[in-house]
Amino acid sequence: MTGVDPRLSINQATIKAADLATALRVTAEAGVTGIGLWREPVNEVGLDTAARMLADSGLRFTTHCRGGFFTLPDGPERIAALNDNRRAIEETAVLAAAGAEGSTAVLVLVAGGLPEGSRDLAGARERVRDAIGVLAPEARAAGVTLAIEPLHPMFGSDRCVVSTLGQALDLAADFDADVVGAAVDTFHIWWDPQVLDQIARAGREGRIATYQVCDWRTPLPADVLLSRHYPGDGIIDFATLTRAVVDTGYDRDIEVEIFNADIWATEPAEVVRRTAEAFARVVSPHLP
Amino acid sequence: MTGVDPRLSINQATIKAADLATALRVTAEAGVTGIGLWREPVNEVGLDTAARMLADSGLRFTTHCRGGFFTLPDGPERIAALNDNRRAIEETAVLAAAGAEGSTAVLVLVAGGLPEGSRDLAGARERVRDAIGVLAPEARAAGVTLAIEPLHPMFGSDRCVVSTLGQALDLAADFDADVVGAAVDTFHIWWDPQVLDQIARAGREGRIATYQVCDWRTPLPADVLLSRHYPGDGIIDFATLTRAVVDTGYDRDIEVEIFNADIWATEPAEVVRRTAEAFARVVSPHLP
Hints:
The structure is a homodimer.
Chain A (H helix, E strand, L loop, with lengths): L7 E4 L8 H10 L4 E5 H7 L1 H11 L2 E9 L7 H23 L7 E5 L10 H22 L2 E4 L16 H8 L7 E6 H4 L5 H10 L3 E6 L1 E2 L11 E2 L8 H10 L6 E3 L4 H4 L3 H15 L6
Parallel strand pairs in A: 1-2, 1-10, 2-3, 3-4, 4-5, 5-6, 6-7, 7-10
Antiparallel strand pairs in A: 8-9
Helix pairs in contact in A: 1-3, 2-3, 3-4, 4-5, 8-9
Protein name (chains A, B): Sugar phosphate isomerase/epimerase
GO molecular function (chains A, B): isomerase activity
Keywords (chains A, B): Carbohydrate metabolism, Isomerase
């Protein structure tokens, strides 16, 4: 277990094929001390059982993935989406309470894309703001921080109309920082000419709810959603980005979240081992 | 020929399979009055011949594509790239002089990606600035405007380290506006939360060197370079973007530049006809 960085957290999406029991086991067995969970595998076993399993694992809980999908116009589908986010807030609070000391109650929000047939990007973005306004009091009551995640602009039409860290911070600005923050994920923001300024701003405003790392490499695969790589296997400058995050005073967990068909086809224990190695090589040298 | 917008210009890349003679002929026969050319088909016949052919066509010349690829470190390859840009400047001046009245001497610059093995995005961006500094006096002497084209951030590592209009304008700010401007291409900038402010700024600063339109649609094809569509076939809001450009006072040509394998496999005359129809339906209603 020597050499596993105590700040590393495995986001469960990195070992997507593993069920909750396997994910918790291989993470803990690798000497990793934190995990970010996804709603589907948690709900597969049920929230109470998941919370017990998490407590038994001894792992810190670092984020819950994910809420959002806020861009639908008024109507039953939007109401259903908001109710689903309410459940996600509850899950986040329960899991954070069940996790080991240092767990954080952070729900990652992916805003959603343009509704089918729509070209109204500004309107979709306003509906994201409105939805966060509806959910913020409930998050506050539950002690949960909503982390708005800007996604790379290649997902801007069909997945997430929040495309830059600056935009996420502008959305968050209407709310208290312990209730609405931003997810800082290297994969999504490395290209942004304003990235260092916006990381500094996010820190100043107390809004870095989670720092997530994985790498970017081209050519992109046919499904661009699966174009993430182990840190160090691509072109992202983790030294500069990590130092920018560290310089804000962010001292909590750092998640590795990789969507990649080859990695998903690899034995989960092997993926966790390789992730911990990559993290130690590429990220840890830039931590205090 | 009724109904072809007089401001439409066909960028030759849209009919990539056509040689220069065919491109000029099908464009003029469709009643389109402007064309943007690419260096390869021009150099295939030689510059002087190309200029004569362009003059004979009666078409306006609207842009030359393209220069750039400025991100290499010092050395023989960088010197070769700069020399190639000098030739592109010369070609642009000659073709603009040969085109019909209203032709514009605009050379589109695609900055280039990270050099092989590099993660130094900031350094690559500085080399772009340096290269433009070298070329600007030569562009001025030739009466050519260099148009820095921001490319969508999905090309940020391997093709163009200039990713937003704001960044292009920051780069251009060191130079006179008639020497260095920006290319405003809907495909590359539609997602940007700052796009309307930056279009207004580009107009205020006199830097809209060309306005180009094509559409964005998902899923992206396996080669994301070829993910452009006829205006109206995707999710871009041409009303809002075109009005923003018009509101700056921009009153020159509007190019359609589409990279798309299906469109490239279609008869060029048919592509020009469909392009003119799409333009008339989606862009023209928002022009004065």
